[in-house]
Write a structure and sequence with these properties.
- The protein is α/β, with parallel strands linked by helices.
- The chain is 41% helix and 15% strand.
- It folds into two domains: 145 residues, Aspartate Aminotransferase, domain 1 (Alpha-Beta Complex); 239 residues, Type I PLP-dependent aspartate aminotransferase-like (Major domain) (Aspartate Aminotransferase, domain 2, 3-Layer(aba) Sandwich), CATH 3.40.640.10.
- The strands form four sheets. It has a seven-stranded mixed beta sheet with strand order 2-8-7-6-5-3-4, sandwiched between helices.
- Helix 4 packs parallel to helix 11, helix 5 packs across helix 10 and helix 12 packs parallel to helix 14.
- The longest helix is centred in the C-terminal third of the chain and has 22 residues.
């Protein structure tokens, strides 16, 4: 008899966090590793948010349990922020505050899925999505959209994997890991298709404020109101406000789904830490000045990393339009010899880059097919330049 349940034993460790942890361990051991792994802004949380947390620490109200679904004032603020930023009107009882965006993802699939229900997940996908679906008893069904189509899935591709068991379409724009941003027309067309098939749509909007150039964020819930009460919106403060460590996310959906998910959370974790909730309240109710300042830096780094990667023989990298990731096609390097080693997969290539250039990247296997690497450009300009320069020197030896 196995010591670990089959359900938990089948789950893979988060590849992005694993790469980040390995990079930090090597740095702690004295190696000058530069990490492009974690999707984490290198900026501090804005001062006014930190100040709200300091004040919250001193308030005895925050030393006690609070409602499992979230502080009422935060739920109201999230509803107001959603209307402000995406034009989607919801009530506070349609909001569940979660311990980070990952819990919102898990809660949603655990609430919506019965064993065997299928979820269409366009790939490349964030590594947690299929694991959360499987853990909830569902079946992840991926469809791969490659660089030749801007990493954006088409309705024809979605239709090709539709079955009698399909219950949910997962839709993400801007995308992690590719930075792809669907146009409003593409968003609306996909939403109408999902509605015509009677599907639920789960949409992750955590990168809503991180778009560049002419690209713009569009909420599928707003553009396709006929989806009605069969849409769930996922979001959080981590990326917009540089608050990854504060662990505050949320899910927005019909009241019966939110009530059921809140029941689950009441047994799993209960309320999110009150001090973090107070900080999140200051964030979502406040201005967006901080994210605009971060976007200036992200945009500069975005252009720099794409130019540098495309200068390396064997790498092709489309220019991302959102989030803070470059998703590079490295198939041109596979099968070539570099310092006596031949990488047959992007996982092997990533391991070689870490060992020989002391640069940590996440291989494409974490997000779908092999042949790609994800590099976060949410790190300092100097580290970015040094890291890509090291990679160029190493990969330039490919034969």
């Amino acid at each position: 008899m196995s010591r670990i349940s089959r359900r938990i034993g089948a789950i893979s460790e988060s590849a992005t966090l694993a790469v980040d942890a390995k990079a930090k361990a090597l740095k702690a051991a004295g190696r000058p590793v530069i990490g492009f792994g974690a999707g984490e802004p290198d900026f501090p949380t804005p001062d006014y948010i930190v100040q709200a947390a300091l004040e919250a620490v001193k308030d005895p109200r925050n030393h006690r349990y609070s409602p499992a679904a979230g502080l009422p004032e935060l739920r109201e603020a999230v509803a107001a922020k959603t209307l402000r930023d995406s034009g989607y009107s919801v009530q506070s009882n349609q909001v569940l505050v979660t311990n980070g965006g990952k819990q919102a993802v898990y809660n949603t699939f655990a609430t919506l899925l019965d064993p065997g229900d299928e979820v269409i997940i366009p790939a490349p996908f964030w590594t947690t999505y299929p694991e959360a679906v499987s853990l909830a008893g569902g079946v992840p069904v991926s469809v791969f959209a490659g660089p030749e189509q801007g990493y954006k899935a088409t309705i024809e591709q979605l239709e090709s994997v539709l079955s009698a068991r399909t219950k949910v379409l997962l839709f993400v724009s801007p995308s992690n890991p590719t930075g792809a941003v669907y146009t409003p027309e593409e968003v609306a067309a996909i939403g109408r298709w999902a509605h015509s098939k009677g599907l639920w749509v789960v949409t992750d909007e955590i990168y809503e404020h991180l778009t560049y150039g002419q690209a713009q964020f569009s909420s599928i819930a707003t553009l396709v109101p006929e989806l009605g009460d069969k849409v769930v919106v996922l979001n959080g403060v981590a990326k917009t406000y540089a608050m990854t460590g504060w662990r505050v996310g949320w899910m927005i959906g019909p009241t019966d789904v939110i009530k059921a998910a809140a029941n689950l959370q009441s047994h799993a974790t209960s309320n999110v830490a009150n001090v973090s909730q107070r900080a999140a309240l200051a964030a979502v109710a406040g201005p967006l000045d901080a994210v605009q300042e971060m976007k200036v830096a992200f945009n500069r780094r975005r252009l720099a990393i794409v130019e540098a990667l495309n200068a390396i023989d064997g790498i092709s990298c489309p220019t991302p339009e959102g989030a803070f990731y470059a998703y590079a096609d490295v198939r041109g390097l596979l099968g070539r010899e570099i310092r006596g080693k031949v990488s047959g997969t992007s996982a092997e290539l990533a391991a070689l880059i870490l060992e020989e250039a002391e640069v940590a990247v996440v291989p494409g296997e974490a997000f779908g097919p092999s042949g790609y690497i994800r590099m976060s450009y949410a790190l300092g300009d100097a580290d970015l330049a040094e890291g890509v320069q090291r990679m160029a020197a190493l990969l330039g030896e490919a034969k």
